[in-house]
Amino acid sequence: MERSARAFTHNAHKALADDVLQDNLVKLKGNFLVRRERARDSLPEFDVLRDEAKAIKDHTLAHLDLYLEAFEAQVTATGGQVHWARDAAEARAIVLEICRAEGARTVTKGKSMIAEEIALNPYLEAHGIEPVETDLGEYIIQLANEPPSHIIAPAIHKNRQQVAELFADNHAHLDGRLLDDIDDMLADARKVLRERFLKADIGITGANFMVAETGQTIIVTNEGNGDLTQLLPRVHIALASIEKAVPSLEDVTTILRVLARSATGQEMASYTTFSAGGRRDGETDGPEAFHVVIVDNGRSAMLGSEVQDMLRCIRCGCCLNACPVYGKLGGHVYGTTYSGPMGSVLSPSLFGIDEMHHLPNASTLCGRCEDVCPMRIPIPRMLRYWRERETERGLAPSTARWGLNLWSAFASRPTLYRRLMRIGVGVLGRLGRRHGGFANLPLAGGWTRAREMPAPEGQTFQDRWQRGERP
Amino acid sequence: MTATSTPHVALFVSCLVDLMRPTVGFAAVKLLQDAGCTVDVPQQTCCGQPAYNSGDRDNARKVARGLLQQFQDYDYIIVPSGSCAGMLSHDLVDLFDDGDEAVLAADVAARTQELTSFLVDIMGINGVAASYDGIVTYHDSCSSLRAMQVRDQPRRLLESVNGLTLREAQDHQVCCGFGGTFCVKYPAVSSAMAADKADRLAETGADTVVAGDLGCLMNIAGILKRRRSPIRVRHVAEVLAGMTDTPAIGDGRPT
Q1: Which of A391, A401, A460 shows the shortest C-beta gap to B18?
Q2: Is residue B117 scored above 80 in pLDDT?
Q3: Chain A residue nearest residue B63, CA to CA
Q4: What is the mean pLDDT of residues A6-19?
């Protein structure tokens, strides 16, 4: 997708002023997080499972080379083929090459964040191949020509009316008719997509996991579209980033138990689909060829670094649902593939802090993301890590740097600090005494636009204490 | 940890309490003394958190260094603010890598306690002798809740206040949008979050909102006052110490 993380502030103002978006975002809270809490409460060992899941990923990341090699060997042994892509360009080229070798004109796609990350759709289109998203949310935003705004609910920012309008504009058989019933819309999308499924030459999915033990890729979906995408066409391409490796099926089982619960509050997603190799002799269905494209695109540089823990992420979207900033703004404001708290750590890690330095600041460090993360990723700590890199590289606004330097110059000299503060607090205390606060304060215009600034009481605690005042 | 019979504690007042709301400092002292502690207020400025959370480790270290010298030799360091308590007990050790300073930082960290959890968990206080006639809702400050595990302690103490009815707000654990420098960097987003918070607080029908962090309280008081809401805003220590005859946060003083 086109990146606009530099425009975060501008994007945020637009999102706050968008009443429809604000209404749509309220759905998030009521839906996912409440269900997640219910699912957590009904599984007493939930936190134990989180620890186990974390340990599995930590172990895997510590031996990632071995597990990836083992995975490749198993895929090859089961008749599939593994391709390695160092970056987005290589990944796109590999996919295109497979498409060309197969003479593909239409590809269906299951939802895949890595495909978004490498901007696969526009690339395929530019090379004469039509990609069709088959996840309903992805399909909706493909019609709208927008990127996803949420990892697991890509069209969460749209309401029923907006979807009806997109269908009316894009589905010729509707003749511009607006469907207002959700079931009718679903039926309509199903009808359109069914033709696409049958017409597709190649199916491209992501992979939630790559199982080293068996050479299987696994996708977790709720709509069944992923199955049709990978089973109906002649060729299945699974795209996966390197950190999706897990050692064994048993490990997958553990992680699956926290994945859906964290994402949607389900015990398991409706479909958990395992792919191993292509169609074998005597088998009657499934793709003839199975390709796995393993993408690095900046991740191996995260190994052994301060942000390695981010590679544990299983893309459940729970931190997005829990984040009060995401909840006010939605995902598009982040201007990059991965939004919300996880994205604010991952995006600078993958795409560089220079371009992404607004994102780690777009958090109050309230810690709710870490609280809910099934993989116990210390997101606030890593947001702070990126803020430190921002400071080191001189990317923070000069007013902020100047302000902090001035503040620390005073705060590290207690006597001077107390004298100055005594004066400042005294003046503000007198000025604000009657009203109790300030409707306007120089240098605090951002604060006072929507809030008063409470006035200080007028004397500092330390002065009063020094003078012998006691409660 | 167990308390000695009369622990000698240092009050870390927090810069916002020191500058904006000394009443909270005196309320904290009263609560600590009533619990049987001897209280000192060492010379102090700030815990360094604004710089630390802004990614400015050098300035954070510079400011926090003074603290290490001043806050030795106390049984406990008590903070009427979850976020400064979090800074002292978790992040301070991260600022000093090795040597004497690292040892001192670890020592300060181990002795630091948020006020209400100290009273309940360490001093074994289950109630206070205060009165407050009103319906109160408690806002969980993020750092209190998540960094310092403060959740039931202030509620238990509030419930013991004579005449006080405690009522939970929806989303009481959701950030109010203050976030230290976040409210300066992204004031519009911060205000929008504060507006949501104000809606949830108003729904409770409470006449007073209390919390354990002055940052959140100033933010919440600021938005409520702009809305001309009748809801009063106070630090939890003021209510627990019975020191509510001063104007609430953001309220004027009749002349």
Answers
A1: A460
A2: yes
A3: A412
A4: 95
Out of B17, B65, B189, closest to residue A12 by CB: B189
**A404 chain-B contacts, CB cut-off 8 A:** 50-51, 54, 56, 59
- In terms of DSSP H, where are the helices of A154-201? 160-170, 182-199
The per-residue pLDDT for B4 is: 57
Give contacts of A 381-410 with B, CB under 8 A: 384, 386-391, 396, 400-401, 404-405, 407-408, 410
Smallest Cα distance from B32 to chain A, Å: 11
**For residue A181, what are its two tokens?**
């019933």
* Run of H or E residues at B6: none
Q: How far apart are CA A321 and CA A369, in angstroms?
A: 9
Quick check: A5 pLDDT over 90? no
User: Which residues are CB-contacts of B179 (< 8 A; sequence separation ≥ 6)?
Assistant: A363, A364, A365, A366, B190
Q: State the Cα torsion B27-B32-B36-B38 to the nearest 10°.
A: -100
pLDDT for B170-219, tens place per residue?
999 999 999 999 999 999 999 999 999 999 999 999 999 999 999 999 99
Q: Classify strands B162-166 and B208-211 as parallel, antiparallel or unpaired.
A: unpaired
Interchain contact, A454 vs B221, CB within 8 Å: yes
Question: Has the ipTM of the complex gone over 0.95?
Answer: yes
Asked if residue B149 lies in contact with residue B143, where contact means CB atoms within 8 angstroms, the answer is no
Tell me if A302 sits within 8 A of A308, measured CB to CB.
yes
**What Cα–Cα distance (Å) separates residue A376 from each residue in A37, A48, A329, A380, B210?**
16, 11, 24, 11, 30
Among B13, B53, B246, the residue with its CB nearest the CB of A365 is B53
Predicted TM-score (pTM) of this structure: 0.96
The predicted structure's pLDDT at residue B240: 98
Q: How far apart are CA B95 and CA B104, in angstroms?
A: 11
A324 in reach of chain B (CB within 8 A) = yes
B207 touches chain A (CB under 8 A): no
Quickly count: other Cβ atoms within 10 Å of residue B48's Cβ. 29
Contact status, residue A202 vs residue A99, Cβ threshold 8 Å: yes
Taking 60 as the threshold, does the pLDDT of residue B166 lie above it? Answer: yes
Q: Measured between CB atoms, does B249 come within 8 Å of chain A?
A: yes
Q: How far apart are CA A53 and CA A64, in angstroms?
A: 16
| Local structure of B189: helix, strand or coil | helix
Task: Report strand pairing: A209-211 vs A216-221.
Answer: antiparallel
- Min Cα separation A208/chain B (Å): 30
Side chain identity at A103, as an amino acid letter? Answer: G
Q: Are the C-beta atoms of residues A149 and A331 closer than 8 Å to each other?
A: yes
> Is residue B179 within 8 angstroms of chain A, CB to CB?
yes
